[in-house]
Amino acid sequence: MPAIQIPTQKWSGKVREVTLGATAADGGTRAKTVTVGGATTLPFLHFDGETPHAPVVAIEIQDRYPEDWSPILLEVWGDAAKDPASWAKAAEEKGADLIYLKFALNDDLSGDYARKIVRQVLDATGLPLIVFGPGQVEQDNDILVSVAEEGEGERLVLGVCEEKNYRTIVAAALAHGHLVDARTAMDVNLGKQLNILISDMGLPLDRIVMDPTTGALGYGMEYGYSVMERLRLAALQGDGMTQLPMLVTPGEETWRAKEARTDEGVPESWGDWTERAINWEVLTTSTLLESGADIVVLRHPESLKRVKGMINALMSH
Amino acid sequence: MALSGLQIYKLLPGSSKNPEVKKHANCKECGFPTCLAFAMKLGQKQAKLSQCPHVEEESKSRLEASAAPPIRLITLSADGHKATAGNETVIFRHEKTFYHQASLFVKVKDNQADAADVAAAVGAYTVDYVGMDLTLDGIAIEDAGGDFAATVKAVKEASSFPIILLTDDPVKAEAGLKAAAGTTPLLSAATPDNWEAMAKLAKQYKAPLTVRAADGDLNALVELAEKVKGAGVEDIVLDPGVRDYSSSLAVFTQLRRLALKKNERKVGYPIIAFAGDDPMLAGQHIAKYGGFVVLDSFSPGTAYPLLVLRANIFTDPQKPIQVQPGIYEINKPQPDAPMMITTNFSITYFSVANELESSGLPGWLLVADAEGMSVLTAWAAGKLDAERIAKGVNTFGIADKLSHRRLILPGHVAVLMGELEEELPDWEIKVGPREAVDLPNYLKTQWG
Ligand code: B12
Ligand code: SF4
């Protein structure tokens, strides 16, 4: 009987390597840098091609105590969550690869305030840093420009950079040696288009991470899953404007969902609250990793541990 | 792989070398003017092969084989419950859709005192997700040195779910098959050592049979599958013997590609996957080509997210799940109860409706026709604007049911307030919270 041939798939394209953070040697102060991308295969198919860098996990911290977060999260982070510096340190101790600092929507946000917080976080941890504004164009522009100045040379990732506001943020990234998070709403062509607009301004492609947005499990996750699969296929087929590593925020999406947020008035069939909530976060995340995510932003330390374990298992071969 | 019309024509009487057959060429008995016309219709699946009475035996078997799905559909059954796997046609869900949801089984051992209780709990478990009742699919019983037949019997009595018999011992297998009489269980597994006996049992008891090779060796797997098939078993399930994340992703992907891209019939069967106690590994098997997925234990806090994951992955990507636009009455609303606007995307509608229902507060929900999109997506796509909402309010005749003229907009589309005030001058427009979880509290404090 003729032997079965393993059906391998060779691709012409390759995901670009992108490095986050800079050590003293490169003009920053980080203890280490993180490089993602470089794959010549769909996620974790080592028989098809190379995956030189494992996906990485960032932990989300906020500039002020997030009163409205699920009690499960507030309890597990405890007092650390009351101060961004100690929160960043706690996240580093729990094994995060990166810190993702998100500024909550607030009337008294200012450039100076943001500068101060970013400085505290940079001083508290040696990990590379991702900084997101509240997601409102005006405030984002205001604070991210100051953040870019304050973090000069650190190769921060600034987000979100959307079609509406990419100019200001890209200019700030260009001037101060940073990267941007290019977010579009779950659409292959919109994603490509924004990358083109950004690189037309002169920001090199290896300073862009692509953020196709995602929904939580049960709340639109499958759309993100398929868009990421299509983006990665396009990248491997040689489409240069999709050959960027992808960042998604399953933590934020999960903990907005009722399943994770609360245990009040929920059906008995939903089971134990903590078990369900963590499963919600890790399953949203693991599914997105299988469809091409390179950087995932999580909220719960137990999820961090489990997702790191899964990534390690998938990287071994 | 399906044959083209021309390829089919080469197998019909019109192309035959046998004069006895050839003489029927274009006889029209099939209902088509020529053999070629019939071949074209067959290629488009608009005719049945049985319509031509003159096809040669050999051609017939080739045509039937080509019409068979590239991954055989396997069905396990018990008292009205079915678990199916196979019959998939694409590698990625966006290429078309995944058709047969991975079946989720929970494992019990035959030396486990509470096996029947677990089976009963698994069988009774059901959870509502956007109006669908999601359930698990079956129980796998593992031979761990206890009384296998007795456990099978107890499990069968405790739940009405299909069964997988996990044993390599033909003697126990037969006892298990007898105890499972009246159902179609999966016999798991035939190995290089026991396959003859197992194949015989599978045939005799009409049960699908798993073939298991070691460590992802696909050649050994195919060899075994062919032997079992040669012994008369057609319903086969593959266990390539891998259990970890990395190898199962690799091997399952290879099997899917072989079946669909290489048209390799010898592996054209669904896969059984073992996820142990790891929900993320089970999640991988659901998305990446597991047909029957076996979990080591049952717990609602894990079953619920896995069932939702499965529902998501197996949703047709071309059709968002929707509810009918219209007026929905929650908790028997009176004319003075609040009136709220939402969209007809199922996930959106049920987020709001479930929140209201469980709070016990009565309300009228006006579900606008937003072509099955979420609030923000619909707004961004221009499918939820002041005009559409006003149209819904007017055509569904909601005003007649109310003693007031106040409506609540989803917080995410607060921007529509001004325009809506113009479209509906008699109405007072209020802006609700952004997330449905906060709706009951909003109604209690802001609706007086
Ligand atoms: C899945 C998704 C899609 C899917 C569509 C899913 C669907 N059937 O609707 C796809 C990929 C097709 C899609 C397309 C687009 N999308 Co889209 N999409 C999402 C995503 C990820 C999740 C949406 C979702 O399902 N949420 C879950 C449901 C349950 O939420 P919801 O309907 O809002 O309901 C909640 C609340 O509003 C509230 N609620 C609902 N009703 C009511 C009523 C009352 C009275 C109250 C008080 C509360 C309330 O309760 C619910 C639970 O809390 C969001 C981003 C995100 N993570 O939120 C972007 C998002 C909505 N999309 C966006 C955009 C721009 C688009 C596109 C226009 C872009 C494009 N890709 O071309 C298209 C438009 C569609 C088209 N032209 O065909 C933007 C909207 C930006 C904005 N603020 O305007 C978002 C926010 C992404 C982003 N950050 O840019 N999208
Ligand atoms: S029945 Fe149709 S296909 Fe068959 S021989 Fe006659 S014309 Fe040809």
Number of domains of chain B: 3
Question: What string, H for helix and E for strand, traces the elements of chain A in order?
Answer: EEEHHEHEHEHEHEHEHHHEH
Under CATH, the topology of chain A can be stated as: TIM Barrel
Relevant CATH superfamily of chain A? Dihydropteroate synthase-like
CATH topology type of the largest domain in chain B: TIM Barrel
Largest sheet of chain A: 8 strands, parallel
State the end-to-end distance of chain A: 28 Å
- Assembly state (oligomeric): heterodimer
Computed Rg of chain B: 28 Å
Shape of chain B: globular
Secondary-structure class of chain B: alpha/beta
Provide structural commentary.
The complex is a heterodimer of chains A (317) and B (448). Chain A has 317 residues and is α/β, with parallel strands linked by helices. Chain A has helices spanning 71-77, 84-93, 111-124, 137-150, 166-176, 188-200, 221-236, 250-256, 258-261, 273-290, 301-315, and strands at residues 18-20, 34-36, 56-62, 98-102, 129-132, 157-161, 179-183, 208-211, 247-248, 295-298. Chain A has one domain (23-315): Dihydropteroate synthase-like (TIM Barrel, Alpha-Beta Barrel), CATH 3.20.20. Chain A has 11 helices and 10 strands. In chain A, the strands form 2 sheets. An 8-stranded parallel sheet of chain A has the order 8-7-6-5-4-3-10-9. In chain A, strands 1-2 form a two-stranded antiparallel ribbon. The longest helix of chain A has 18 residues, at 273-290. Chain A is globular, with a radius of gyration of 19 Å. The mean pLDDT of chain A is 96. With 448 residues, chain B is α/β, with parallel strands linked by helices. Chain B folds into 3 domains: 5-67, Orthogonal Bundle (3-methyladenine DNA Glycosylase II, Chain A, domain 3); 74-313, TIM Barrel (Alpha-Beta Barrel); 326-446, 3-Layer(aba) Sandwich (Rossmann fold). Chain B contains 17 helices and 17 strands. An 8-stranded parallel sheet of chain B has the order 10-9-8-7-6-3-12-11, with helices on one face. In chain B, strands 13-15-14 form a 3-stranded mixed sheet, with helices on both faces. Chains A and B meet through helix 7, helix 9, helix 10 and helix 11 of A and strand 4, helix 9, helix 10, helix 11 and helix 12 of B. The structure holds cobalamin and iron/sulfur cluster. Residues 12-14, 24-30, 32, 35, 38, 52, 54 of chain B line the site of iron/sulfur cluster.
